[in-house]
Protein backbone atom coordinates (compact mmCIF):
# COMPACT_ATOMS: atom_id res chain seq x y z
CA UNK A 1 0.00 0.00 0.00
CA UNK A 2 1.39 3.46 -0.87
CA UNK A 3 1.77 6.00 1.87
CA UNK A 4 -0.99 8.22 0.43
CA UNK A 5 -3.43 5.28 0.42
CA UNK A 6 -2.31 4.48 3.92
CA UNK A 7 -2.97 8.02 5.05
CA UNK A 8 -6.46 8.14 3.59
CA UNK A 9 -7.32 4.90 5.38
CA UNK A 10 -6.01 6.12 8.70
CA UNK A 11 -8.42 6.59 11.61
CA UNK A 12 -8.03 8.06 15.07
CA UNK A 13 -9.32 6.94 18.46
CA UNK A 14 -9.28 8.98 21.65
CA UNK A 15 -9.17 6.95 24.84
CA UNK A 16 -9.33 8.54 28.31
CA UNK A 17 -7.78 7.72 31.68
CA UNK A 18 -9.94 7.38 34.78
CA UNK A 19 -10.15 8.20 38.47
CA UNK A 20 -12.31 6.36 40.91
CA UNK A 21 -14.38 8.56 43.23
CA UNK A 22 -15.32 5.75 45.62
CA UNK A 23 -15.38 1.95 45.81
CA UNK A 24 -11.73 0.98 46.04
CA UNK A 25 -10.63 -2.64 45.83
CA UNK A 26 -14.24 -3.75 45.68
CA UNK A 27 -14.41 -4.65 41.98
CA UNK A 28 -12.78 -8.03 42.65
CA UNK A 29 -15.22 -8.55 45.51
CA UNK A 30 -18.28 -8.13 43.26
CA UNK A 31 -19.04 -4.73 44.80
CA UNK A 32 -20.10 -1.40 43.24
CA UNK A 33 -17.62 1.22 42.01
CA UNK A 34 -17.92 4.87 41.02
CA UNK A 35 -15.25 5.86 38.50
CA UNK A 36 -15.07 8.82 36.13
CA UNK A 37 -13.34 8.91 32.75
CA UNK A 38 -11.10 12.00 32.72
CA UNK A 39 -9.72 14.27 30.04
CA UNK A 40 -6.18 12.95 30.14
CA UNK A 41 -6.12 11.10 26.87
CA UNK A 42 -4.40 8.54 24.69
CA UNK A 43 -4.54 9.30 20.96
CA UNK A 44 -4.24 6.28 18.68
CA UNK A 45 -3.87 6.63 14.92
CA UNK A 46 -4.10 3.44 12.91
CA UNK A 47 -4.44 2.15 9.38
CA UNK A 48 -4.98 -1.34 8.00
CA UNK A 49 -2.13 -3.53 6.71
CA UNK A 50 -2.48 -6.17 4.04
CA UNK A 51 -0.20 -8.54 6.01
CA UNK A 52 -1.22 -10.34 9.18
CA UNK A 53 1.06 -8.09 11.25
CA UNK A 54 0.78 -5.45 13.92
CA UNK A 55 3.27 -2.60 13.69
CA UNK A 56 3.38 -0.37 16.77
CA UNK A 57 4.99 3.01 17.33
CA UNK A 58 4.81 4.04 20.98
CA UNK A 59 5.72 7.66 20.33
CA UNK A 60 6.23 8.72 23.96
CA UNK A 61 8.66 5.86 24.56
CA UNK A 62 10.37 6.33 21.20
CA UNK A 63 9.97 2.58 20.61
CA UNK A 64 8.55 0.53 17.77
CA UNK A 65 7.95 -3.18 17.27
CA UNK A 66 6.35 -5.60 14.80
CA UNK A 67 4.69 -8.89 15.63
CA UNK A 68 2.59 -11.43 13.82
CA UNK A 69 -1.08 -12.13 14.49
CA UNK A 70 -0.46 -15.81 13.74
CA UNK A 71 1.34 -16.76 16.96
CA UNK A 72 0.31 -14.27 19.63
CA UNK A 73 0.55 -16.84 22.43
CA UNK A 74 4.35 -16.86 21.96
CA UNK A 75 4.58 -13.20 23.03
CA UNK A 76 7.45 -12.62 20.64
CA UNK A 77 8.19 -10.06 17.95
CA UNK A 78 8.85 -10.85 14.31
CA UNK A 79 12.47 -11.74 15.09
CA UNK A 80 11.45 -14.13 17.86
CA UNK A 81 12.56 -11.82 20.70
CA UNK A 82 10.24 -11.35 23.71
CA UNK A 83 7.65 -8.66 23.06
CA UNK A 84 8.57 -5.39 24.76
CA UNK A 85 6.33 -4.64 27.74
CA UNK A 86 4.40 -1.82 26.03
CA UNK A 87 3.44 -4.15 23.16
CA UNK A 88 1.88 -6.75 25.45
CA UNK A 89 -1.27 -4.67 25.92
CA UNK A 90 -2.20 -4.41 22.21
CA UNK A 91 -1.01 -7.98 21.61
CA UNK A 92 -3.09 -9.20 24.57
CA UNK A 93 -6.21 -7.53 23.22
CA UNK A 94 -5.66 -9.06 19.78
CA UNK A 95 -5.14 -12.46 21.46
CA UNK A 96 -8.36 -12.13 23.52
CA UNK A 97 -10.34 -11.10 20.42
CA UNK A 98 -9.04 -14.07 18.45
CA UNK A 99 -9.90 -16.40 21.35
CA UNK A 100 -13.45 -15.05 21.23
CA UNK A 101 -13.63 -15.89 17.51
CA UNK A 102 -13.34 -12.27 16.36
CA UNK A 103 -10.98 -12.00 13.37
CA UNK A 104 -8.26 -9.38 13.90
CA UNK A 105 -6.85 -7.59 10.85
CA UNK A 106 -3.27 -6.38 10.60
CA UNK A 107 -2.66 -2.73 11.32
CA UNK A 108 -0.02 -0.10 11.80
CA UNK A 109 -0.58 2.12 14.84
CA UNK A 110 1.08 5.16 16.38
CA UNK A 111 0.03 6.38 19.80
CA UNK A 112 0.82 9.06 22.30
CA UNK A 113 -0.73 9.83 25.66
CA UNK A 114 -0.72 12.47 28.37
CA UNK A 115 -2.02 10.01 30.98
CA UNK A 116 0.91 9.60 33.38
CA UNK A 117 2.21 6.04 33.16
CA UNK A 118 2.14 3.89 36.29
CA UNK A 119 0.29 6.50 38.36
CA UNK A 120 -2.93 4.54 38.82
CA UNK A 121 -4.92 6.53 36.23
CA UNK A 122 -5.40 3.51 33.96
CA UNK A 123 -2.93 4.40 31.24
CA UNK A 124 -2.80 0.71 30.32
CA UNK A 125 -6.60 0.29 30.17
CA UNK A 126 -6.65 3.33 27.84
CA UNK A 127 -4.28 1.46 25.48
CA UNK A 128 -6.25 -1.79 25.70
CA UNK A 129 -9.64 -0.22 25.07
CA UNK A 130 -8.29 1.94 22.22
CA UNK A 131 -6.92 -1.15 20.46
CA UNK A 132 -10.14 -3.07 21.04
CA UNK A 133 -11.98 -0.24 19.27
CA UNK A 134 -9.42 -0.22 16.45
CA UNK A 135 -9.69 -3.99 15.92
CA UNK A 136 -13.45 -3.70 15.98
CA UNK A 137 -13.44 -0.87 13.41
CA UNK A 138 -11.22 -2.82 11.00
CA UNK A 139 -12.86 -6.18 11.68
CA UNK A 140 -16.36 -4.81 11.10
CA UNK A 141 -17.72 -6.83 14.03
CA UNK A 142 -21.05 -6.23 15.68
CA UNK A 143 -20.07 -6.54 19.34
CA UNK A 144 -21.33 -4.43 22.19
CA UNK A 145 -19.10 -2.32 24.38
CA UNK A 146 -19.43 -4.53 27.46
CA UNK A 147 -18.15 -7.50 25.47
CA UNK A 148 -15.11 -5.44 24.49
CA UNK A 149 -14.60 -4.46 28.14
CA UNK A 150 -14.59 -8.14 29.13
CA UNK A 151 -12.10 -8.93 26.36
CA UNK A 152 -9.73 -6.17 27.41
CA UNK A 153 -9.92 -7.36 31.02
CA UNK A 154 -9.11 -10.88 29.84
CA UNK A 155 -6.10 -9.48 27.98
CA UNK A 156 -4.86 -7.74 31.12
CA UNK A 157 -5.48 -10.76 33.38
CA UNK A 158 -4.37 -13.63 31.19
CA UNK A 159 -1.96 -12.18 28.66
CA UNK A 160 -0.26 -9.28 30.46
CA UNK A 161 -0.63 -11.20 33.73
CA UNK A 162 -2.12 -8.53 36.02
CA UNK A 163 -4.98 -9.84 38.10
CA UNK A 164 -7.09 -6.65 38.08
CA UNK A 165 -10.87 -6.25 38.28
CA UNK A 166 -13.14 -4.80 35.58
CA UNK A 167 -13.43 -1.19 36.75
CA UNK A 168 -10.65 0.43 34.70
CA UNK A 169 -11.54 -0.98 31.30
CA UNK A 170 -15.23 -0.30 31.98
CA UNK A 171 -14.60 3.36 32.89
CA UNK A 172 -12.37 3.95 29.88
CA UNK A 173 -14.98 2.44 27.54
CA UNK A 174 -18.18 3.83 29.08
CA UNK A 175 -17.05 7.28 30.29
CA UNK A 176 -19.64 10.03 29.95
CA UNK A 177 -19.06 13.76 29.84
CA UNK A 178 -20.02 15.44 33.14
CA UNK A 179 -21.00 12.13 34.74
CA UNK A 180 -19.64 9.58 37.17
CA UNK A 181 -20.36 5.92 36.41
CA UNK A 182 -21.95 3.69 38.97
CA UNK A 183 -21.15 0.07 38.07
CA UNK A 184 -22.36 -3.01 39.90
CA UNK A 185 -19.44 -5.35 39.19
CA UNK A 186 -21.53 -8.45 40.03
CA UNK A 187 -24.33 -7.87 37.50
CA UNK A 188 -22.52 -5.33 35.27
CA UNK A 189 -25.61 -3.10 35.49
CA UNK A 190 -24.51 0.50 35.37
CA UNK A 191 -25.81 4.02 35.47
CA UNK A 192 -24.33 7.44 34.65
CA UNK A 193 -24.77 9.85 37.57
CA UNK A 194 -24.54 13.60 36.83
CA UNK A 195 -21.75 15.52 38.57
CA UNK A 196 -22.39 18.99 39.91
CA UNK A 197 -21.06 21.80 37.69
CA UNK A 198 -19.88 23.63 40.80
CA UNK A 199 -17.30 21.02 41.68
CA UNK A 200 -13.84 20.46 40.18
CA UNK A 201 -12.18 17.05 40.06
CA UNK A 202 -8.53 17.54 40.91
CA UNK A 203 -6.05 14.69 40.65
CA UNK A 204 -2.77 14.91 42.53
CA UNK A 205 -0.01 12.55 41.43
CA UNK A 206 2.49 11.83 44.20
CA UNK A 207 4.86 10.52 41.52
CA UNK A 208 6.09 7.83 43.85
CA UNK A 209 6.92 4.59 42.05
CA UNK A 210 4.42 1.79 42.72
CA UNK A 211 6.98 -1.00 42.91
CA UNK A 212 5.22 -3.46 45.18
CA UNK A 213 1.87 -2.84 43.58
CA UNK A 214 1.57 -6.22 41.80
CA UNK A 215 2.38 -8.53 44.69
CA UNK A 216 0.61 -6.42 47.32
CA UNK A 217 -2.50 -6.23 45.12
CA UNK A 218 -2.59 -10.02 44.83
CA UNK A 219 -2.01 -10.34 48.55
CA UNK A 220 -5.11 -8.18 49.23
CA UNK A 221 -7.16 -10.28 46.83
CA UNK A 222 -6.07 -13.44 48.63
CA UNK A 223 -7.01 -11.93 52.02
CA UNK A 224 -10.52 -11.19 50.75
CA UNK A 225 -10.88 -14.75 49.49
CA UNK A 226 -9.69 -16.10 52.84
CA UNK A 227 -12.29 -13.95 54.63
CA UNK A 228 -15.06 -15.35 52.42
CA UNK A 229 -13.85 -18.88 53.03
CA UNK A 230 -13.99 -18.36 56.80
CA UNK A 231 -17.38 -16.61 56.81
CA UNK A 232 -18.94 -19.42 54.80
CA UNK A 233 -19.08 -21.53 57.96
CA UNK A 234 -21.70 -19.12 59.29
CA UNK A 235 -23.14 -17.77 56.03
CA UNK A 236 -23.09 -20.78 53.67
CA UNK A 237 -24.72 -18.98 50.72
CA UNK A 238 -22.05 -16.32 50.19
CA UNK A 239 -19.76 -16.26 47.16
CA UNK A 240 -17.95 -12.95 47.77
CA UNK A 241 -17.69 -10.17 50.36
CA UNK A 242 -20.40 -8.39 48.38
CA UNK A 243 -22.85 -10.83 49.95
CA UNK A 244 -21.91 -9.82 53.51
CA UNK A 245 -23.42 -6.72 55.11
CA UNK A 246 -21.60 -4.83 57.87
CA UNK A 247 -23.74 -6.25 60.74
CA UNK A 248 -23.18 -9.97 59.97
CA UNK A 249 -19.53 -9.18 59.27
CA UNK A 250 -19.20 -7.67 62.71
CA UNK A 251 -20.86 -10.74 64.20
CA UNK A 252 -18.86 -13.45 62.42
CA UNK A 253 -15.44 -11.94 61.69
CA UNK A 254 -14.13 -12.06 65.26
CA UNK A 255 -12.11 -15.27 64.83
CA UNK A 256 -10.37 -14.19 61.66
CA UNK A 257 -6.63 -13.47 61.75
CA UNK A 258 -6.42 -9.73 62.43
CA UNK A 259 -4.97 -8.69 59.04
CA UNK A 260 -7.62 -10.62 57.16
CA UNK A 261 -10.37 -9.24 59.38
CA UNK A 262 -9.17 -5.70 58.63
CA UNK A 263 -9.10 -6.27 54.86
CA UNK A 264 -12.63 -7.67 54.88
CA UNK A 265 -13.85 -4.84 57.11
CA UNK A 266 -12.66 -2.29 54.56
CA UNK A 267 -14.52 -4.08 51.78
CA UNK A 268 -17.90 -4.41 53.52
CA UNK A 269 -17.75 -0.79 54.73
CA UNK A 270 -16.59 0.52 51.35
CA UNK A 271 -19.46 -1.21 49.56
CA UNK A 272 -21.92 0.43 51.97
CA UNK A 273 -20.20 3.78 51.36
CA UNK A 274 -20.61 3.55 47.59
CA UNK A 275 -24.32 2.77 47.88
CA UNK A 276 -24.80 5.72 50.23
CA UNK A 277 -22.63 8.05 48.15
CA UNK A 278 -24.66 7.55 44.98
CA UNK A 279 -27.80 8.63 46.77
CA UNK A 280 -25.99 11.76 48.00
CA UNK A 281 -24.60 12.54 44.55
CA UNK A 282 -28.07 12.29 43.03
CA UNK A 283 -29.45 14.91 45.42
CA UNK A 284 -26.39 17.15 45.02
CA UNK A 285 -25.09 16.64 48.58
CA UNK A 286 -21.42 17.07 47.75
CA UNK A 287 -20.47 17.81 51.35
CA UNK A 288 -21.96 14.47 52.43
CA UNK A 289 -20.29 12.74 49.49
CA UNK A 290 -16.94 14.27 50.44
CA UNK A 291 -17.23 12.94 54.00
CA UNK A 292 -17.59 9.42 52.61
CA UNK A 293 -14.48 9.96 50.49
CA UNK A 294 -12.56 10.94 53.60
CA UNK A 295 -13.79 7.85 55.45
CA UNK A 296 -12.81 5.80 52.40
CA UNK A 297 -9.27 7.12 52.57
CA UNK A 298 -8.97 6.41 56.28
CA UNK A 299 -10.13 2.87 55.69
CA UNK A 300 -7.64 2.33 52.84
CA UNK A 301 -4.92 3.74 55.08
CA UNK A 302 -5.72 1.94 58.34
CA UNK A 303 -7.59 -1.24 57.40
CA UNK A 304 -6.57 -2.11 53.86
CA UNK A 305 -3.09 -0.62 54.32
CA UNK A 306 -2.52 0.45 50.73
CA UNK A 307 -1.72 4.11 51.35
CA UNK A 308 1.73 5.71 51.57
CA UNK A 309 3.09 8.64 53.62
CA UNK A 310 3.02 10.74 50.43
CA UNK A 311 -0.63 9.97 49.66
CA UNK A 312 -1.56 10.65 53.29
CA UNK A 313 0.27 13.99 53.15
CA UNK A 314 -1.56 14.94 49.93
CA UNK A 315 -4.91 14.11 51.54
CA UNK A 316 -4.15 15.96 54.79
CA UNK A 317 -2.96 19.06 52.94
CA UNK A 318 -5.97 18.95 50.61
CA UNK A 319 -8.43 18.82 53.49
CA UNK A 320 -6.94 21.99 54.98
CA UNK A 321 -7.74 23.98 51.85
CA UNK A 322 -10.88 26.11 51.53
CA UNK A 323 -13.57 24.57 49.31
CA UNK A 324 -12.25 21.00 49.49
CA UNK A 325 -15.16 18.61 50.04
CA UNK A 326 -13.27 15.35 50.01
CA UNK A 327 -9.89 13.81 49.23
CA UNK A 328 -8.69 10.24 49.05
CA UNK A 329 -6.21 7.98 47.32
CA UNK A 330 -7.61 6.62 44.08
CA UNK A 331 -6.93 3.35 42.26
CA UNK A 332 -4.98 0.52 43.82
CA UNK A 333 -2.78 2.73 46.05
CA UNK A 334 0.82 1.85 47.04
CA UNK A 335 1.74 5.21 45.45
CA UNK A 336 0.05 6.93 42.53
CA UNK A 337 -2.65 9.58 42.90
CA UNK A 338 -5.26 11.17 45.11
CA UNK A 339 -8.59 12.50 43.87
CA UNK A 340 -10.05 15.67 45.33
CA UNK A 341 -13.46 17.31 44.95
CA UNK A 342 -13.07 21.07 45.23
CA UNK A 343 -15.49 23.99 44.86
CA UNK A 344 -14.90 25.44 41.38
CA UNK A 345 -13.98 28.97 42.48
CA UNK A 346 -11.34 27.55 44.78
CA UNK A 347 -9.75 25.20 42.22
CA UNK A 348 -6.94 27.52 41.08
CA UNK A 349 -5.79 28.30 44.63
CA UNK A 350 -6.10 24.62 45.56
CA UNK A 351 -3.77 23.57 42.75
CA UNK A 352 -1.12 26.11 43.76
CA UNK A 353 -1.31 25.61 47.50
CA UNK A 354 -1.38 21.82 47.55
CA UNK A 355 1.62 21.67 45.24
CA UNK A 356 3.60 24.17 47.30
CA UNK A 357 2.69 22.71 50.71
CA UNK A 358 3.38 19.15 49.60
CA UNK A 359 6.82 20.21 48.44
CA UNK A 360 7.44 22.07 51.68
CA UNK A 361 6.39 19.07 53.76
CA UNK A 362 7.98 16.18 51.84
CA UNK A 363 10.64 17.81 49.65
CA UNK A 364 8.95 16.07 46.73
CA UNK A 365 7.19 17.41 43.71
CA UNK A 366 3.59 16.40 42.92
CA UNK A 367 1.80 16.91 39.59
CA UNK A 368 -1.73 18.27 39.85
CA UNK A 369 -4.38 18.07 37.15
CA UNK A 370 -7.73 19.85 37.00
CA UNK A 371 -9.78 17.17 35.24
CA UNK A 372 -13.23 16.99 33.71
CA UNK A 373 -15.48 13.97 33.35
CA UNK A 374 -15.31 12.97 29.73
CA UNK A 375 -16.58 10.48 27.16
CA UNK A 376 -15.20 6.97 26.83
CA UNK A 377 -12.95 5.73 24.01
CA UNK A 378 -14.30 6.62 20.57
CA UNK A 379 -13.36 7.12 16.93
CA UNK A 380 -13.12 10.72 15.80
C1 LIG B 1 -6.60 -1.24 40.04
C2 LIG B 1 -7.32 -2.37 39.33
C3 LIG B 1 -8.84 -2.19 39.45
C4 LIG B 1 -9.25 -2.00 40.92
C5 LIG B 1 -8.41 -0.91 41.57
C6 LIG B 1 -8.68 -0.78 43.04
O1 LIG B 1 -6.85 -0.02 39.38
O2 LIG B 1 -6.97 -2.38 37.97
O3 LIG B 1 -9.49 -3.31 38.89
O4 LIG B 1 -9.17 -3.20 41.62
O5 LIG B 1 -7.02 -1.16 41.39
O6 LIG B 1 -9.98 -0.36 43.26
What structural class do the secondary elements suggest? alpha+beta
* Spatial order of strands in the largest sheet: 5-4-6-3-1-13
Shape: globular
- At the third CATH level, what is the topology name of the domain at 3-195? Ribosomal Protein S5, domain 2
- Tell me the name of the CATH class of the domain at 3-195: Alpha Beta
How many strands, what sense, and barrel or not for the largest sheet?
Answer: 6 strands, mixed
Which distinct ligands sit in these coordinates? alpha-D-galactopyranose
Q: Helices and strands, in N-to-C order?
A: HEEEEEHEHHHEEEHHHHHEEHEE
Instruction: Quickly give the CATH architecture of the domain at 3-195.
Output: 2-Layer Sandwich
Mean pLDDT: 95
Low-confidence stretches: 1-7
Binned, the helix content reads 40-55%
Radius of gyration: 21 Å
State the end-to-end distance. Answer: 23 Å
Which strand-content bin applies to the residues? 15-25%
> Helix count, per DSSP?
11
Tell me the number of strands: 13
Structural overview:
The protein has a domain at 3-195: 2-Layer Sandwich (Ribosomal Protein S5, domain 2). Helix content is 41%, strand content 22%. Helix 6 crosses helix 8 (258-282) and helix 10 (309-319) packs across helix 11. The longest helix has 25 residues, at 258-282. The relative contact order is 0.17. The protein starts with a helix and ends with a strand. By secondary structure, the chain is an alpha+beta fold. A 6-stranded mixed beta sheet has the order 5-4-6-3-1-13. A 4-stranded antiparallel beta sheet has the order 10-11-9-12. It contains 11 helices and 13 strands. Alpha-D-galactopyranose binds at residues 20, 24-25, 27-28, 164-165, 167-168, 331-332.
Amino acid sequence: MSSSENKSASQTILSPGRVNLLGEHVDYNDGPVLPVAIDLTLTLEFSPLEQNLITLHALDLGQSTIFSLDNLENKTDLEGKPLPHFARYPAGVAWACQKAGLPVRGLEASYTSNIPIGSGLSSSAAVEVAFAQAFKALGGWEVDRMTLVKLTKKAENEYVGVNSGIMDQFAVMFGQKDHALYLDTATLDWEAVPLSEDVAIIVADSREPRELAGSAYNDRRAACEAAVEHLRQYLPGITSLRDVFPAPYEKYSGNLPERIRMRGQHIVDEIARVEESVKLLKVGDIAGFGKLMIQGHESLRDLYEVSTPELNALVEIALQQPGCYGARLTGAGFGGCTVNLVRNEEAGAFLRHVKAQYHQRTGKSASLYHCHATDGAHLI
